[in-house]
Amino acid sequence: MLSQFQLGMARLLTTVVSPAPFLPRILKLRFDRSKLGTVDSLVEFIHTRSSYIAQTSLHGYLKARMGTSFRAWFEDEVFSASIRIASVKVFLSCLSDLTVYSVATAARQTVFDDTTLQALAGHAFRKAALAGLAGQPERDDLDATFEAFDRRTCLENWQAAAEGRRAFSGSEADLVRYAPVIDEYRELDQEIVTNSIRFRWRDVREQIRRRMDGHGLLEDWKAGAGRGEAGC
Question: How far does Cα 36 stand from its chain's mean position?
């Protein structure tokens, strides 16, 4: 069974233009002005934005590279499987970057110690990943992803992570790395593909800076202290 994220990717990949049903939700997400002052609101934000960035970036690149033969490639069973694998990897990479940037932005607004930042980031990443993938891929693979994210947060410079696009270098590289194209295209297209996802992240960062309520987020996190912590 395909996950919620993979089904969204499939719908995008099988249409020439973005399907109309996506437009109202995309507009609602972009123009939402509510504050990110609770853990649940943060999880919803990083889940939906990471999913959208991953879908549109990977989908846009594959369509541009394949041109009019795109539909034929997508109907190929082996290639469509490779797209599903790539979609999951790019989504998780986007989610990792966005989680770190969001928590780092919150940390600039109030007093968070590193242990709290690591625990909050780990909790949000896990919940958003499970929501985006609806339990896929298999648990062993997802556990390895969670462990890798915990290692990242243990080494993270939280002050620097909120500066510009520094936190997003991973997803930029992974979009090129995991896109199911031949190595020749990967090398030729690296700059344009990287610039494409970089441009999409700019609007998301602006939304975070505008909507983040670090004080509220910290208080909500403290109120739910039983959520568990990731440790170094």
Answer: 17
| Spatial contact of 221 and 49, defined as CB atoms under 8 Å apart | no
Residue 224: which pLDDT band, with cuts at 50, 70 and 90? Answer: confident
Tokens describing residue 25: 């939700």
Selected residue with higher pLDDT from 17 and 208: 208
Quick check: 21 pLDDT over 50? no
* Residue type (1 letter), 200: R
Residues in the chain: 232
Cα separation, 112 vs 133, whole angstroms: 29
Give Cα separations from 80 to 63, 77, 173, 225 (angstroms): 13, 5, 22, 42
CB 208 within 8 A of CB 105: yes
Q: Are 193 and 61 in contact (CB under 8 A)?
A: yes
Q: How far is CA 168 from CA 65, 67, 100, 121, 174, in A?
A: 23, 28, 9, 15, 10
